[in-house]
Amino acid sequence: MRMSRGGNAGPLKCGKGTTYEGGMREPAIAYWPGTIRPGVTHEMASTLDILPTIANLAGAKLPQVMLDGVDMTEILVHQGKSKRETMMFYPINPSEMYGLFALRLGKYKAHFFTQGAAHSATTPDQDCPAFAVLKAHDPPLIFDLESDPSENYHLPVNERPDLQALLERIKKVKEQFEATMVFGESQISKGTDPNLAPCCNPQCSPKPSCCHC
After folding, report:
1. Which of 18, 52, 137, 206 could make an SS bond with 14 (beta carbons 3.0 to 4.6 A apart)?
2. C-alpha–C-alpha distance, residues 77 and 7, integer Å
3. What is the 3-state secondary structure (H, E, C) of 44-92?
4. Lowest mean pLDDT segment, chosen from 88-97, 143-152, 183-192
C-alpha cells in the first residue's frame, strides 16, 4: 500500500492479501558465520521449514504430528537442492468451502481461485484491488514461474498434451494434500471476552472491576 515507499513487489504480481507471487513470495537471509557460506540460492523454501531445520541442526526430535515443513539444511549448509517441491497457497480467510487457492509444483503454479485484496489497492493491475472479486478457474490458471514470475501469461492447458499431463499431476497432489488437511476452529470468530482484557492498573482492587484503561 506504500507503493515505492516499501510496498513495491517489483515484477511480481499484486501484493499482500492475495495468493499471487507479489503477495506470497519473499526474500530471506540466513546468517551463521563459519557454517553458512556467503552466496545466493533460488531454491524454494518456506517459514514452515524452520522447525524441522532447527530440530535437525540441534539434534532434537520432531513432534509426532504431520508437519508441512521440510529440512532446509542441504540448502543452507551445503548449497544444495531443496527437498520442497510443492507449496500450498491459502487466502487470508481460508475456508473448507474453497480449500486451496493455488498450488506450486516445481516451477509451475496453478491458481484454482483468484481474488484481489485491500492491501493491493494501489497496484494498477486490475486483478489486484479488493474489487477484483473471487473467481474460480477450471481448468486452473497455470504459470511457468521461471519464465514468467509476473504471472502474466497462463499456459494453454487445453492445447498441449504435455500440459494436460502436468495438470493431472497438479490435481493429484492437490487431492492428496486436501485429504489430510484438517481445518482448525477459527479463534477470531469466537469474538471478544472483556474478562481477558489486560489490566492497566495491576495493583488495584477489586479485580476485574478496577481494571479500567
Report:
1. 18
2. 31
3. CCCHHHHHHHHHHHHCCCCCCCCCCCCCCHHHHHHCCCCCCCEEEECCC
4. 183-192
Write out the H or E segment, with its range, that includes residue 111: strand 108-114
Choose among 111, 69, 71: nearest CA to 90. Answer: 111
d(Cα 177, Cα 18) in Å, to the nearest integer? 21
Q: In the sheet where 86-89 sits, what is the strand order?
A: 86-89, 102-105, 108-114, 135-144
Alpha carbon distance 138, 66 (integer Å): 30
- Asked if 129 and 15 touch (Cβ cutoff 8 Å), the reply is no
pLDDT band at 39 (very low <50, low <70, confident <90, very high): very high
Q: DSSP character for 183?
A: P
Please tell me the pTM assigned to this model.
0.84
* CA atoms of 94 and 117, how far apart (whole Å): 14
CB 79 within 8 A of CB 37: yes
